[in-house]
Amino acid sequence: MTNPTNHWQNYIGGHWVDAEQTLDIDDPATGAVFASIACADKNDVDRAVAAARQCVDSGVLSDCRPVKRAELLQRIAAEIRKIADKGAPLLARENGKTLNDARDEFLIAARYFEYYAGMADKIEGKSIPLGADYVDFTVYEPVGISAQIVPWNFPVDICARSLAPALAAGNAVIVKSPEISPLGMTWLASACHRAGLPEGALSIICGYGHEAGAALIAHEDIDQIVFTGSVATGQNILRSAAERAIPSVMELGGKSAAVVFPDADMDQLLSSVKWGIFFNAGQVCSAMSRLLVHRDIYDDVVAKVTELAQSLKVGNGMDNADLTPVASARQQQQVLRMCDQAVAEGARLVTGGQAPADRKGYFVEATVFADVTPEMSIFTDEVFGPVIAITPFDSEEEAYALANGTDYGLVAGVFTHDLTTTMRASRALKAGQVFVNEWYAGGIETPFGGIKLSGFGREKGQEALYSYVNTKNVAIRVSK
Predict the structure, then answer these.
(1) CA nearest 125: which of 114, 113, 136?
(2) How far apart, in Å, do the first and last CA atoms of the chain sit?
(3) Would the pTM of this model clear 0.85, i.e. be above it?
(4) How far is it, in rounded angstroms, from Cα 374 to Cα 26?
């Protein structure tokens, strides 16, 4: 998997392999290169697909008793738990996130495998009545080879989120890891290997999106695409998938809003703001990037959110600081450019908006914009950084119109203790998931995904499992 020079390999068809080229990996807290990994190309993709096809054709996962797959997933979960403490420092260093969050990411990955292990033997078909002359039933069959492209913000977590249900259903999986944060995922591959995952059932390769990623998506022998990332990249992938009508699951980000009514619990709200936009430096697809506040409490909320932002300890993730760096120099530049644009468009910068002068690496200050209007880019465009945009409203109808007034529809939230208002909000907000009085409420058990430009299909929960199977109907005429 690695060697004393801190060079890491790809995992292809059950084996650790190098490539003709390498990628440097830097530490976002310092900007310094500290490791390298094999950089896959088209030939490596072909090897991974060939190994996956051999696994699928052998039926080693699809034809066994489902309880055997369940036992395998439980073993993988146990192996992930064993490596959480060792893998966390590497994930924290390459990604910039806190050491505690990195460890939690491995534990969440283990939980995915435990959850879907419990479902592997419960993928049941139906009997359909067609009268005395027929016996009709449905069966679920694995899709085959699932090609999965994982983003850099939660690589271990999101990899497990799609990998576990795909394996539970009996598929082979090829994962393209993110170029800037691939190392923690090698620990995930090692856990699967030690648990006895059959050869070819999993390959995890790192390479550039325009090379390895494009070759994987365009490969004529894959059967499904699962992608989490930007809208632009997702649209390019869908254009390629359309050539062969490849079924896809797309999670493409968001510009999610929380609606705050006058009776909201301020402590609950501030806790949710801290986690909703400043956790992982705001690099969360379902981040609370917009705060819509009733005018009666608007000034008070702006003041308290500003105080919260200014109180955060900025520092290295290895020290478990409150606000860690964004993952790359490119991401830092993008966030700062969007902050400058917001100021130019008339948003009121209350605090932040700069890179801390006393920090190396890719840090961005906790940033609060107030008096943001729907015409501003900071209201409509995903920033993917520690930047919150606050807008006042006067009525429920206006609040919901503002919340729904972007091209995204991933999640939304409402803060109120009025049950009638909560129910109206849950129906009016156009999103795949609605949080009430706690941002990120829910869990592995609850389906996750969006509408509009946030994508389609669902991850997590029981619903996700059915993305990894095809329904076959069998109709039998009974002879008399």
Answers:
(1) 136
(2) 63
(3) yes
(4) 37
> What b/e sequence results for 197-213 when a residue is b if at least 16 CB atoms lie within 10 Å of its CB, and e otherwise?
bbbbbbbbbbbebebbb
Catalytic-residue membership of 251: yes
Residue 2 in this model has a pLDDT that exceeds 60: no
Q: How far apart are CA 163 and CA 48, in angstroms?
A: 15
Backbone angles phi, psi at 76, to 5 degrees: -60, -45
* Strand pairing class (134-142; 21-26): unpaired
Identify the residue whose tokens are 């809208």.
Answer: 231
pLDDT for the residue numbered 3: 47
Active-site residue 179, yes or no? no
Beta-bridge mates of residue 208: none
Query: Per-residue pLDDT for 182 more than 60?
Result: yes
> Contact at 8 Å (CB) between 455 and 469?
no
The catalytically annotated residue of 251, 365, 382, 459 is 251
Q: pLDDT, tens digit, for every residue of 454-477?
A: 999 999 999 999 999 999 999 999
Give the Cα separation of 258 and 391 in Å (integer).
10
Q: Single out the residue of 183, 127, 175, 168 nearest to residue 147, CA to CA.
A: 175
Residue 388 has pLDDT above 50, yes or no: yes
For residue 1, the model assigns a pLDDT of 55
| pLDDT higher than 70, residue 102 | yes
In this predicted structure, the answer to whether residue 359 has a pLDDT above a threshold of 60 is: yes
Taking only the tens place, the pLDDT of each residue in 185-222 is 999 999 999 999 999 999 999 999 999 999 999 999 99
Q: Active site residue: 39, 159, 285, 339, which one?
A: 285
**Full DSSP string of 25-78:** EE-TTT--EEEEEEE--HHHHHHHHHHHHHHHHHTTTTSS-HHHHHHHHHHHHH
Question: Comparing C-alpha atoms, which of 198, 109, 199 is closest to residue 157?
Answer: 109
What letter would DSSP give residue 177? E
Residue among 312, 372, 314 nearest 339 (CA): 372
What is the token pair recorded at 422? 């909560």
Residue 83 sits at the vertex; the CA angle it makes with 79 and 86, to the nearest 5 degrees, is: 170
Torsion sign, CA atoms 261, 267, 273, 275: negative
